[in-house]
Design goal:
Radius of gyration: 34 Å
Structural class: mainly alpha
């Protein structure tokens, strides 16, 4: 019994001897074009990946810088408010205690408010934002 792979290989070898068929199909040119196409697609994917990575990194850095600025503003406004309360209450520490109590109350309210519904809404909003960015990038 003859191996089917060997018979197919022999058929291809026999066809390759018939130069008219391969020159008509231009098989080598098709393979070269296809491999070139694959290489170009890989290069394009790499470029798009690094572009998206750079854009994400830039946005992350901007977000971190803005977050640090907002934190510093809140910190110094809180300290200033505590000093104002100290002077109004004629105390050296009561203003700081009141400001700390305010932040504890805000923390408790936010921790109770942040349940699965809020988390789901935030996740949906974030995914919608990402989808709109993808559609914007596809349009460009």
């Amino acid at each position: 019994m003859q191996n089917p792979v060997n018979s197919c290989f022999k058929t291809v070898v026999n066809l390759s001897e018939k130069k008219g068929l391969f020159s008509f199909l231009n098989f080598e040119s098709i393979v070269e074009n296809f491999s070139g196409y694959i290489e170009k697609r890989i290069a394009l994917f790499k470029m798009e990946f690094f572009e998206d990575l750079a854009l994400g990194s830039a946005r992350l850095i901007i977000f971190l810088v803005l977050s640090i600025c907002v934190f510093m503003i809140i910190l110094f406004l809180s300290i200033a408010g505590a000093f104002v309360l100290n002077s109004l209450l004629n105390s050296h520490s009561l203003g700081f205690v009141l400001v700390a109590a305010f932040y504890v109350i805000v923390f408790i309210i936010l921790s109770f408010a942040m349940n699965k519904k809020v988390e789901g809404k935030l996740k949906d909003a974030f995914l919608e934002m990402l989808n709109s960015l993808e559609e914007k990038d596809e349009d460009d």
